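Hi U.,

Before I forget, here's the chain from the pilot set. I'm dumping it here mostly so it's searchable later in email.
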Amino acid sequence: MSDEAEHSGRKVLAKAKIAAVLAILIIGGIAGYFFYHDYAEGIVTLSIIDPPSAQPGNSLHYNSSILHIYVRFSEIDVHQVGLGTTNSTSWYSVVGSPVTVDMISVLNAPRTLGSANLATGTYDQVRFPVSTVIVTISMVGNVTYSIPSDLLRVSITGGGFQSSAGVRVNLLLTVSFSNSEILAMNGRLTPHATATLT
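Structure:
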């Protein structure tokens, strides 16, 4: 074999190696983009507060005879847009186990309930099944209330939030009750809830 043919063969082999490396880099880059775009996760942290605003006709948020408002949430989930609202695959748990919150303890400062990694996407609703509400009223004791719908859903203000790799989102759930409903002691409460980004 002549030197020229050997040199030409080396050039072809070098070009083939370069082409193979470039093909691997291009395929890896495309795969990395789709993994990052579709599977990389952001983090959402969920807190709860009972907004410390006065009830109409009352200078305090709650009547001074209301000592505690214990709300038991079975779980708290967020909804990913585009996957339907009734199917369970579109809801992602932020608080996966039951938690009880004394709403009187979160009048002035929110309490963090949990956080979760979320796939890239837009999230627009919060749902939270409430299993029980027990209110401690001075001179009466504990009074148990039911909620009209055991499963409550609220839209996140502003159309929701976008989750993507490395993004941290703080979500604030506000829940409050009516003084008059509590003091009527008729066994039913209607919570007023909103979800906002902070």
